[in-house]
Amino acid sequence: MYSAEFYNWCKIELLLVKTSECLRKAFEQSWQHKYKVAWSNSPECGQHFANNVGLNVYRHVGKIQKGHLESGDIRKWDLTIFNAIFTMTDLNKDKVFQANLKRLMPIRNSIAHHSDKKISTQEYQQYWNELKGILLFLGVTDEELDDIIHSHSSDSKMYIMNENVKKSIELKQEGNNLLKVQKFLMAATKYTDAITLPGISDGDLSVLHSNRSLCYLKLGKYAQALEDAKLSKRLNPDYLKAYIRLGKAYESLEKYDKAIKNFDKALSLDMNNDEIRQMRSDARKLKGLQERDNDQSIKDLHLKSIQKFKDMKNKDEIKKLLININPALADAASG
After folding, report:
1. pTM (2 d.p.)
2. Mean of the per-residue pLDDT values for the chain?
């Protein structure tokens, strides 16, 4: 039996799906109005857009979203893509439209980061009030909104009871419980079982890969941890924990520049997070120690070579050393 908090999340998710539909229509109308031609859901249209009016958008979005843009199929475009399009192009510069778009994205980001898919009644009411105003502006009627909100007995229930989605939630929770008691290998297996289920959303897969990355970090399997962290970021470029996992994986592999870069990105997503700031500070210290060790190793090697040179008893030994260092010195050694 699922909780009221989970049903709340589903209803807000349905409202966001409706918002995406509205923005698709807004895009089609804006495109038709500006260019006097209907948009075609084709790779030709997508590539033309990505290489011309949408070039900045294409550069801004993640790898998966780039693929969706290139496909030209706006049914695959999500709220992040539409937000980038309407803020980075001149397709619709209406001030009220832009204001509503600005109100929308914090809601979308907040819901996307509810990995447990639960929101309280108070949160639900706040999201509902905001989204209602946005959707009414975008042309949705009160009757349509009422249908969406009360559709949890049909549409959202179908979503919830999808067997793969249901199973993935159960497996993730089992993995989380095992992670808490430090049974990292068993937890990783649960996350793997969830990842391999078909029909799981990119957002959910991103969380699963991030969690498995943490297990691999704890197990000392740093290369595998890195691969999972990369997949997590690719699936959801705005997911904070993906960058934390990347930072820790690179740090474990002693690639401190890359670790610092990913901690920087994580901080850009959560500027007040002191824990991430400490991770970055630790990585910087480790980088400094590594650089000092490298400098000392070079000095030691230099001193060792000088001492070896001093210890040589005859010219033949000196000649042999010079040739080993650089064959081009053979003539010099002979002279």
Report:
1. 0.52
2. 84
